[in-house]
Design goal:
- The protein has eleven helices and twelve strands.
- By secondary structure, it is α/β, with parallel strands linked by helices.
- Strands 1, 2, 3, 4, 5, 6, 7, 10, 11 and 12 form a ten-stranded mixed sheet that branches. A two-stranded antiparallel sheet has the order 8-9.
- Helix 7 packs parallel to helix 8 and helix 9 runs antiparallel to helix 10.
Length: 331
Amino acid sequence: MIPHRLPQTSDGPADPPRIAVVMVNWNGWQDTLTGYESLAKSTYPAWELIVVENGSTDDSVTRLRGDRPRFHLVESPTNLGFAGACNVAVQAARERGADYVYFLNNDAAAEAGTLDTLAATSKSLDDAAVLGSVIRFSDDRSLQFWGSRQSKDGLPIWTPPSEERFAEAPALIESDFIMGASLFVPMPILDSVGPFDDRFFLNYEETDWCYRARAAGHRCLVVKDALVVHQGGATIGPPQGPMQIYFMRRNVLLLAEKHCTPRQYARLYVRQVLSIFSRLLRSMIGPGNDPRYSRTASWANAVATRDYMFRRFGDCPPIIRARAAKHRASI
């Protein structure tokens, strides 16, 4: 049975730090409640789930309302994106006395000992680092994320999903950022680094935040013994879908603008503008079996680049969502 409220800290030394687990829900109440049930198996005694209901258009609000143990619902009348919703959740966690905030995708499940491992590791590092877990795909348990490094272009390159390399990795794996699907942060670091940049809306918002944290002197570390399994794409769709392409292509330019050198940024900008024409040309000739060069993908890339040029940030245009829904229905 789940205790009804997060235990309040007393003057006794044995009280464990309080962890606010944050999930953002947008038209995915089934995943959110499944994630909540997985947290009930956690061996860590002092957690509470904060769910930001992010302006869903289905019946998520009705489904998520109600009196559940360790479950705090924050309702947003509009879709704030992942970045904006997480900022709302952090404020709620702060007001509710959390010592740590653990951002966990609603289509992800933390293993029973993950909260214990993350909290203990953070404490051993004097709560001075940003932590993440290893993330594996839920269907075949293959590696999705276990670290990243910055390329010569100043952008993140994920560590390849090699089980051999992973087996040889140290207990704490240095990374240039931590994936937002499983991001563990002490509250003082959140206070000092500041909120997520909500211009990103979703995709690259956690990369930008981690780059800012590292610039402030905080390491980003993947904890090898902490594990989360992740469905992936439940909200934003498949990698070559219109919504994924739009946010990735627009937001990578914003990330480069904020964190790359002028030369790195200029090179990326020119390359992306040129890619509009090369992708459109290839889509007209025929993309073959490569979904990157389909007409829908090429169009989404062009819209993303245009919106970046005209400083249109936040949510994507409605036509992107409409095309994304059509694309999902076709696969």
